């Protein structure tokens, strides 16, 4: 609310201020101070001593033309980046007719055209003080302070105590124990509107050395965990340990005393611009300015899973972190604001396409049989984490639970898992369950909105009709027998139905296995076409000795694994001794086929190769960390990476090592000729962990970088050129990664990415598996979120290079490492 000033005649005072302003001219680059006689208006700006920060009137890019704000931004960064905004709730319409000045009571105020106070520092100034005794100074830290003119170090008020969405180095983020006041950070509403959003950061009032992510000032949805002074990192952000290394230019610390507790970010190099922000997405992002890229680079983001942000997708939608886009409206709903939705802001949620026809009788909540409530039905969404706010009612069956919801017009959804839960408010925070152990939720919709799924009562009727139809329709039965397809009970998923095929079906689909696509360590692969025209890849497994029940159980597990960078299982065949798998078809085949081409015209561009490397790492991260049971692939190599029409990589053959009961001797047999991808622990006989996949990935990353096999064979004498992984280790030590690539590969390479990829590859192939990063860390390093340090040269690489000359002694040499 604006406060009108009447003392001293507001009109005369305002005109006096504007007259003084016009007489003094523009304080361009010459001042960092605001006084009663030296205010700020129009295109003028303050610049801090040292030139690091500037302050003036600011308008967000893409925002309304009539909304202006007083902001502080980086003066030496080409991309205008505000770090603090004064009047974020009360923008002014015209900076030329507005003024930021020292008021009669000594406070810093923003006056608009109508001579009203739009914003004020609103602090207590010593009794008797006036506008002649206080000044506002912009410091080179980005802190705006109100102080006494006689001693500017005697601070009365500072912007660092009132942050918006950003924490800067030197700013205390915490709480005053004496007053109980916390200086919370609050997100922008969206990227064009700096008004307070629904996400904020605040100190945890119950646990020391910890802060919370808050949604809508009402609930906590994430914490990075307790801060560890020894590591200089939070329990949930291990990547911050890079900041605590000796001689690091920046550090993070926690201070706790009788008066206050706070976190403090410190940067020891004034040329480094670093900040942390609570984003409109609800994530906290740490960013550092990269002058060579002319952009901000992330060094951490939490929570990394955007679906962990409460209500990230708003009401009546569900969030799937591996989907693009990540938010989807539930069936029967559409985005509340299509414009915001298309720009990536999903928090507005979704609204019904058609209103529910259910009408109340006599003002109560129970509809009469004539009110039309039977026009309502339920649409099921499977394998989700249920939203909050349910109420439990008595029901012994799922049918009773549906009826309980159906008979109350206020009931919007139900779920039954032995207990009947009903929802009466907006469905918020509905998420895909990555562990594939989620529940089913039934969403209430008008019958007209139901296309493919009916209520339980409807399904019962449909089943009866179906039985009659099957009895009468002999020809239809014949077609069904020919196709011999059936869904496996319990394998319903949001976007996939796993199908079981007979062996005769597989022969028909593949034209009796005539179109062979290739072969691998698990069996041969053939091209097939389903009845609806869908092209699939059929893998005929070799050496499977599991019984049908166990095999089906394994298919259930593999079939429920979904990720953008993992190949999707369409169906399978388990009949007699035959075991076959049907996968989605990848138009560009294997990475092996695309990578090792001799023609320079067919070379994959660097950007594509780098994204393939990141995609494969993300797929392996999902297998290692996101599945209900950790899956170790055991056979990472270019032949097992498939590429779709857009060259998006898909890891194939995951889970098959366990399926085939693969032991050490089998690995050595099936990987003959690709010994270069095996981790040392396969030879030494020690336990195999996810770090074996990390090693194989590292060896493959060398090949992605070079566009060549690690070991090139010439003729029959097995002579080899310089072993590329060793060459990489040497060149990154010399700081000359450009020399690694042939001239035809250098034309489009980002050399910063090249250096990063080379160092990551070297870390992945360390002999000691504890020295290798996790695949999750590999993703963060390749994306530039974690700093990559100089790796040592692994001795294993030298042994591997020598093995090319004397392959018969490989096992002995590797065992000795």
Automatic annotation (TrEMBL):
Residues 31-159 form the Bulb-type lectin domain. One of its GO terms (molecular function) is protein serine/threonine kinase activity. Residues 1-30 form the signal peptide. The keyword Transmembrane helix applies. It is an enzyme of class 2 (transferase). InterPro entries: Bulb-type_lectin_dom, Bulb-type_lectin_dom_sf, Kinase-like_dom_sf, Pan_app, Prot_kinase_dom, Protein_kinase_ATP_BS, S_locus_glycoprot_dom, Ser/Thr_kinase_AS. Keywords: ATP-binding, Disulfide bond, EGF-like domain, Glycoprotein, Kinase, Membrane, Nucleotide-binding, Receptor, Serine/threonine-protein kinase, Signal, Transferase, Transmembrane, Transmembrane helix. GO terms for cellular component: membrane. One of its GO terms (biological process) is response to other organism. PANTHER family: OS07G0415500 PROTEIN, RECEPTOR-LIKE SERINE_THREONINE-PROTEIN KINASE. This is Receptor-like serine/threonine-protein kinase. It comes from Panicum virgatum.
């Amino acid at each position: 609310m604006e406060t009108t000033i009447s003392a001293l005649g507001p009109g005369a005072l305002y005109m006096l201020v504007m007259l003084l302003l016009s007489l003094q001219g523009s304080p361009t680059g010459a001042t960092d101070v605001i006084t009663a006689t030296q205010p700020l208006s129009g295109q003028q700006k303050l610049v801090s001593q040292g030139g690091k920060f500037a302050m003036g009137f600011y308008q967000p890019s893409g925002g309304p033309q009539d909304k202006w704000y007083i902001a502080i931004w980086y003066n030496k960064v080409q991309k205008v980046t505000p770090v603090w905004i004064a009047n974020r709730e009360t923008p002014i319409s015209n900076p030329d007719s507005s003024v930021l000045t020292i008021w009669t009571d000594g406070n810093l105020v923003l006056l608009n055209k109508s001579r009203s106070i739009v914003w004020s520092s609103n602090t207590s100034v010593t009794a008797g003080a006036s506008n002649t005794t206080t000044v506002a100074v912009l410091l080179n830290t980005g802190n705006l302070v109100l102080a006494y003119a006689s001693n500017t170090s005697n601070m009365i008020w500072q912007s660092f105590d009132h942050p918006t969405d950003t924490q800067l180095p030197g700013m205390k983020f915490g709480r005053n124990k004496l007053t109980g006041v916390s200086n919370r950070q609050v997100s922008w509403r969206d990227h064009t509107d700096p008004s307070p959003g629904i996400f904020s950061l605040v100190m945890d009032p119950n646990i020391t050395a910890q802060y919370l992510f808050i949604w809508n000032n009402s609930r906590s949805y994430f914490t990075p965990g307790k801060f560890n002074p020894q590591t200089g990192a939070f329990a949930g952000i291990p990547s911050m340990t890079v900041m605590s290394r000796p001689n690091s230019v920046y550090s993070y610390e926690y201070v706790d005393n009788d008066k206050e507790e706070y976190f403090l970010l410190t940067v020891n190099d004034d040329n480094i611009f670093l900040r942390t922000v609570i984003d409109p997405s609800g994530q906290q992002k740490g960013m550092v300015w990269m002058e060579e890229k002319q952009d901000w680079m992330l060094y951490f983001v939490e929570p990394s899973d955007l679906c962990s942000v409460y209500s990230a997708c708003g009401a009546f939608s569900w969030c799937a972190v591996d989907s693009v886009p990540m938010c989807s409206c539930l069936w029967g709903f559409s985005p509340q604001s299509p414009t915001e939705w298309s720009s990536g802001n999903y928090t507005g949620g979704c609204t019904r396409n058609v209103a529910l026809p259910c009408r109340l009788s006599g003002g109560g909540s129970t509809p009469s049989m004539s009110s039309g409530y039977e026009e309502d039905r339920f649409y099921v969404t499977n394998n989700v984490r249920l939203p909050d706010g349910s109420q439990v009612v008595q029901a012994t069956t799922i049918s009773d639970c549906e009826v309980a919801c159906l008979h109350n017009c206020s009931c919007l959804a139900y779920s039954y898992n032995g207990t009947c839960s009903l929802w009466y408010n907006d469905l918020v925070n509905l998420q895909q369950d990555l562990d594939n152990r989620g529940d089913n939720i039934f969403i209430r919709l008008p019958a007209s909105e139901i296309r493919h799924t009916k209520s339980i009562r409807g399904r019962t009727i449909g089943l009866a009709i179906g039985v009659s139809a099957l009895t009468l329709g002999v020809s239809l039965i014949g077609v069904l027998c020919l196709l011999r397809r059936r869904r496996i009970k319990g394998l319903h998923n949001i976007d996939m139905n796993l199908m079981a095929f007979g062996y005769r079906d597989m022969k028909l689909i593949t034209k009796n296995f005539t179109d062979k696509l290739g072969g691998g360590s698990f069996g041969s692969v053939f091209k097939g076409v389903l009845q609806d025209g869908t092209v699939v890849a059929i893998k005929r497994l070799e050496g499977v000795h599991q019984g049908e029940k166990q095999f089906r159980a394994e298919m259930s597990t593999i079939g429920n694994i979904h990720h953008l960078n993992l190949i999707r299982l369409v169906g399978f065949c388990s009949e007699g001794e035959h075991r076959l798998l049907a996968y989605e078809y990848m138009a560009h085949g294997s990475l092996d086929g695309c990578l090792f081409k001799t023609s320079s015209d067919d070379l994959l561009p660097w950007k594509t190769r780098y994204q393939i490397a990141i995609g494969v790492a993300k797929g392996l991260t999902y297998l290692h960390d996101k599945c209900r049971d950790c899956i170790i692939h055991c056979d990472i190599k270019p032949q097992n990476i498939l590429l779709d029409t857009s060259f998006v990589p898909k890891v194939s053959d995951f889970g098959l090592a366990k399926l085939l009961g693969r032991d050490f001797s089998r690995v050595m047999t099936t990987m003959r000729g690709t010994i270069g991808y095996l981790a040392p622990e396969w030879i030494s006989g020690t336990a195999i962990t996810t770090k074996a996949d990390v090693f194989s990935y590292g060896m493959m990353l060398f090949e992605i970088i070079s566009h060549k096999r690690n070991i090139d064979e010439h003729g029959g004498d097995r002579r080899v050129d310089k072993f590329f992984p060793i060459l990489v280790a040497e060149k990154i030590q010399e700081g000359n990664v450009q020399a690694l690539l042939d001239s035809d590969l250098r034309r489009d390479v980002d050399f910063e990415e090249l250096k990063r990829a080379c160092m990551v590859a070297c870390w992945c192939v360390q002999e000691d598996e504890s020295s290798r990063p996790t695949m999750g860390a590999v993703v963060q390093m390749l994306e530039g979120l974690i700093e990559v340090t100089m790796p040592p040269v692994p001795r294993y690489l030298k042994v591997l290079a020598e093995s090319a000359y004397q392959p018969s002694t490989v096992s002995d040499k590797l065992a000795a490492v």
